[in-house]
Amino acid sequence: MPTRTPRRPTSRSSRRQRSARRSRSWRTSSWIGTADGRRPDGLDIIITLTTDFGVRDPYVAEMKGAILGIARAAGATVQLVDVTHEVARHDVVEGALALEAAAPFFPRGTVHVAVIDPGVGTARRGIAVAARDQVFIGPDNGVFTPFLSGRDWRAFELAVPAYRLPAVSRTFHGRDLFAPAAAHVAVGVDLARLGPALTDPVRLAWDRGRERAGTIEGAVIHVDRFGNLVTSLFADALRPGSVVRVVGRTIPMVGTYGDLPRGGLGALAGSSGRLEIAVREGSAAAVLRARRGTRVIVSRTSSSRTSSSGTSPSQTSPSQISPSQISSSRISSSRTTTRARRRS
Prior knowledge:
The chain is of the alpha+beta class. The protein has six helices and 15 strands. It is 19% helix and 23% strand. The strands form two sheets. Strands 8, 9, 10, 11, 12, 13, 14 and 15 form an eight-stranded antiparallel beta sheet that branches. Strands 2-1-3-5-4-6-7 form a seven-stranded mixed beta sheet, with helices on both faces. A hairpin with a 2-residue loop joins strand 4 and strand 5 (134-139).
């Protein structure tokens, strides 16, 4: 009589064990690209670019050429989108904030390339991060910090020569390493083929604030082109009756810029969910003489010691926190950021 192959056990514990074994590999092909450079829904894969290159020099075009060359050789079609090329030179924090603001609005399967890379050519690693159903490729210098919260991410070192250009310049990894890796991922290469898994990607040292004695203390982490002060605090940390103080001035909370008189100073939830300090049709950075590292204090109750008109910026020097003093902590989840954005 023919022998019967024993059936695999079907207990709950055995099913969990098999599921755990399958989950050890991190596959992105189901939601990134296929061999023809299209998402599972048949649409073109999107690759975004965020750099500090500006647009005067040909660097951005060289990166795009590298991507398109690989895609065309594979018979694939990709769509290139510029997030910004005006990140301040070497400013990794500004690059991270640009990605944090833009990435949630791109569809599932988008590949983001970020090149703000003052350490190019050194021992710093190239990295690919899969998080929030998108992929982020660039230098391992903290630029992807907003996407490394919680456990729902995986990272891989860009270590396999097959997924870079044949000749790699020590001064232009954006063109020779990161752009090719993005193109290969877009046409269906799984992230695990790019190199070994990483558990220790570099994170920027910023946080959501430190609570003490009824206050939350944060800092300015970015000044945008309008002079708005973007802080390390998220608006969901505020409660009714909260009072914001910067360089000795008490600043009222408002819903939007138009709630302020022209030249008026206010605090509000910005479009990315972070607490911002703004002057209507003016510059909060200039009015307060504030910059990155300036302390921002949120109190649960109002203070009678100062008012928005009681202390002149010229009479109070900004209290500064160096970037190295801002403690490392988690970045709020996309769900928390979404709740904050709805209130802005």
